[in-house]
């Protein structure tokens, strides 16, 4: 992917770091490693308030953020590409854009691979077979390989909510009940 077209997918501070990280990973044939490392960082970000505080708090100096990131990266066994990027971001006090960077790098990797990501929310976790079947069905619809990003929301009661690009399909029981409730209001 040429630089000009990758730049159109990203913008702002996170976009510049994302584009640089993606291009280094692509040129070094490290896309799988970078994607795995970013997935692990995203998990830590989602589960650790201390990690989020280190990233966002102006109280920590550049050096403290850099040491914390280096220690975390070493403990997690992250590759040098992501570790160096995080170190540079700490040095430049840009760690607060990490969630956006992760999303943008994922989008660049997916575009490079010709993939589309489907955000799938279900009432209970999808089995591996269900995820594969859903990905195959969506591939027929969108014409590209589909990567499933699955989350669980028990309030759906049953069914799925699938978002692919600007399309959304809501087959959840919660949505059907809401629709039925609206129809009953119109009648009465």
Structural write-up:
By secondary structure, the chain is of the alpha+beta class. The chain folds into two domains: 3-110, Peroxidase, domain 1 (Orthogonal Bundle); 115-187, no CATH class. The chain is 64% helix and 13% strand. The chain has nine helices and four strands, in the order H-H-H-H-H-H-H-E-H-E-E-E-H. It has helices spanning 3-9, 12-27, 31-47, 49-56, 62-76, 80-91, 98-113, 128-142, 173-187; strands at residues 115-122, 145-152, 160-164, 167-170. It has a four-stranded mixed beta sheet with strand order 2-1-3-4. Helix 8 links the parallel strand 1 (115-122) and strand 2. Helix 1 (3-9) crosses helix 2. The chain starts with a helix and ends with a helix. The model is unreliable at 1-9 (pLDDT under 50).
């Amino acid at each position: 992917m040429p630089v000009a077209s990758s730049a159109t997918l990203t913008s702002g501070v996170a976009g510049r770091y994302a584009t640089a990280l993606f291009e280094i990973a692509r040129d070094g044939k490290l896309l799988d490693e970078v994607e795995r490392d970013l997935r692990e960082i995203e998990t830590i970000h989602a589960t650790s308030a201390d990690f989020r505080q280190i990233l966002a708090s102006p109280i920590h100096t550049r050096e403290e953020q850099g040491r914390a990131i280096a220690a975390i990266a070493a403990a997690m066994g992250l590759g040098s590409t992501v570790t160096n990027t995080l170190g540079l971001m700490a040095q430049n006090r840009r760690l607060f854009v990490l969630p956006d960077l992760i999303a943008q790098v994922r989008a660049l990797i997916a575009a490079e691979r010709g993939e589309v990501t489907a955000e799938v929310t279900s009432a209970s976790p999808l089995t591996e077979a269900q995820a594969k079947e859903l990905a195959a069905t969506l591939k027929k619809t969108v014409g590209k390989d589909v990567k499933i990003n699955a989350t669980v929301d028990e309030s759906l009661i049953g069914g799925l909510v699938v978002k692919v690009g600007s399309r959304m399909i809501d087959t959840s029981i919660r949505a059907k009940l809401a629709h039925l409730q609206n129809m009953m209001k119109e009648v009465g």
